[in-house]
């Protein structure tokens, strides 16, 4: 199981639950590894709007009904 013992944000928990890795998120969302790491592990991190859009496009491939408000404090 992925993510055991790691501090995880809502997105980190979501991708772990669905069996995806941060590397998968990087490839699908076309974001950097450092950005993906911060998004998945730091609940206080506030990414740019363009990054949120890229991540949500990738998340919606898993769950078409996902909303940005579910994962980011906006």
TrEMBL record:
Transmembrane segments: none annotated. The keyword S-adenosyl-L-methionine does not apply. InterPro entries: Cro/C1-type_HTH, Lambda_DNA-bd_dom_sf. CDD domains: HTH_XRE. The keyword Lipid biosynthesis does not apply. GO terms for molecular function: DNA binding. Keywords: Plasmid. Residues 16-60 form the HTH cro/C1-type domain. It holds the Pfam family HTH_3. SUPFAM superfamilies: lambda repressor-like DNA-binding domains. This is XRE family transcriptional regulator.
